[in-house]
Amino acid sequence: MLRRAVCTAVLSSVLVVATVTSGTAADDGPPVTFPASPKGLKAPVSLPKDLDPVPMYQPQSACQPGETAGLKKLRDLVITTYGVGRSGSTARSCTEGTSEHSDGRAWDWMVAVRTTKEKAAAADFLAWLTRDGGRNARRLGVMYVIYNQKIWGAYRASDGWRPSYDHVDHVHVSFSWNGARGTTSFWTGKVQPTDFGPCAVFSGQPAQTRSTANPNPCRAAVSLPKRSAHPTSALGSKVASVRTGQGLVGASTTGVFDAETRTQVYAWQKTHDLPLTGTLDQATWVSLAPDQVASDATSGMTKDEARAYGLAHYSGTTLRRGSAGRSVLVLQKAIGRGLRYRTGYFGTSLESAVRSAQAKIGRPQTGTWTRDDWAAVNR
Ligand SMILES: [Zn+2]
Fold it and tell me: Which residues pair with 153 in a beta bridge?
């Protein structure tokens, strides 16, 4: 437990250090003495000439705990190759600050600096991983590593090893999304394009979890048009409102956000036009407890006023599945969606509601809301 707390604290400190030293190329030397010719790991396939894209810094954005395929493959290969150090617990709750551990994208290899054999194994692995500008880190999709108070990032390879904190009893390995999925050239012999990972719909809220690679950069998150009096909570959380949320989604009211709660939250999100985050985020709370809304961009508007407002402000904005924000909230009010469905997010349920509304106003049932629909609904 203590070790976990230390690991998370260190990650937030790392970000501070990264900001402070940004722009200075201070190679501070490796965290322990590196062998000149590291043995390294042997790829299970023959490697292509091309290298994988440099892993970008992709911080945790969703709550996707578990062990990803790439993590498991590297863990098993490292442990069989070196035969020392056990695997630390990797799956974490999502309440310990920003950590790729909560995305299943971080692995702790328990090898202590004070144990000669373990230190030598860590030195060999890290020397091999980071040599030649981090070729092997790119092949594995390793985003950064921390050991013995030093951090090395593939996205800042030219800066070498930079100061960090703690991590004297384990090597922390964080993966890019490509690395986490285990689709990089080290495992497959093929170079894949960058996987941009999960995207957040609303700013400051958890991203939607996803099981497939994302080939496109995330669209900018929009600000929440409606907020709840309840705080956002995620797997592992014990805040007081978790019990209330459990009651509302039909999970056992244990007071701890557990796996069963998460399943029920997903089920509610699927049927209520919400981003599929698996968390009790603001949009979900607004739907679960519409009588406990703290702010609402459409509050005080009647349905007719919402229609007029939509025509005046959003007739140039096409609203379709995936759209989000104030314009969607206004549309939801304008076409008379029930309170629990006024989330500011355009999901499949709103799409069918839009089709019915279009049928009523004599418009083609496209499921996409345009200027002509605003004009027709105002007549
Ligand atoms: Zn760690």
Answer: 144
The tokens describing 169, both together, are 């009893």
Tokens for 191? 């170079």
Task: State the sign of the Cα–Cα–Cα–Cα dihedral 170, 56, 276, 227.
Answer: positive
Distance 99 CA to ligand 1 centre (A): 8
What's the gap in Å between 53 CA and the centre of ligand 1?
24
Indicate the helix (H) or strand (E) that contains 270: helix 259-271
Residue 172 Cα to ligand 1 middle (Å): 4
Q: What is the pLDDT along the chain (379 residues), one digit of tens a residue?
A: 233 434 543 444 344 444 444 444 555 799 999 999 999 999 999 999 999 999 999 999 999 888 899 999 999 999 999 999 988 876 667 877 778 998 889 999 999 999 999 999 999 999 999 999 999 999 999 999 999 999 999 999 999 999 999 999 999 999 999 999 999 999 999 999 999 999 999 999 999 999 899 999 999 999 999 999 999 999 999 999 999 999 999 999 999 999 999 999 999 999 999 999 999 999 999 999 999 999 999 999 999 999 999 999 999 999 999 999 999 999 999 999 999 999 999 999 999 999 999 999 999 999 999 999 999 999 8
pTM for this predicted structure: 0.86
φ, ψ of residue 71 to 5 degrees: the values are: -60, -50
Output phi, psi for 173, to 5 deg: -120, 120
Domains of the chain, residue spans? 2-188, 297-378
Give the DSSP letter of residue 222: B
Burial of 183 (0-12, 13-18, 19+ CB in 10 A): buried
Cα-to-centroid distance, 104 and ligand 1 (Å): 11
Q: Which two tokens stand for residue 111?
A: 């090898």
CA of 145 from ligand 1 middle (Å) equals 9
> Ligand 1 mean position to 7 CA, how many Å?
5
Rounded distance from Cα 112 to ligand 1 centre (Å): 14
Q: Do 157 and 134 contact (CB within 8 A), yes or no? A: yes
For tokens 């490697």, name the residue: 47
Distance 5 CA to ligand 1 centre (A): 10
- C-alpha distances (whole Å) from 330 to each of 30, 305, 358 are 56, 9, 16
From the candidate CATH numbers 1.10.10.10, 1.20.1440.230, 1.10.580.10, 1.10.101.10, the one assigned to the domain spanning 297-378: 1.10.101.10
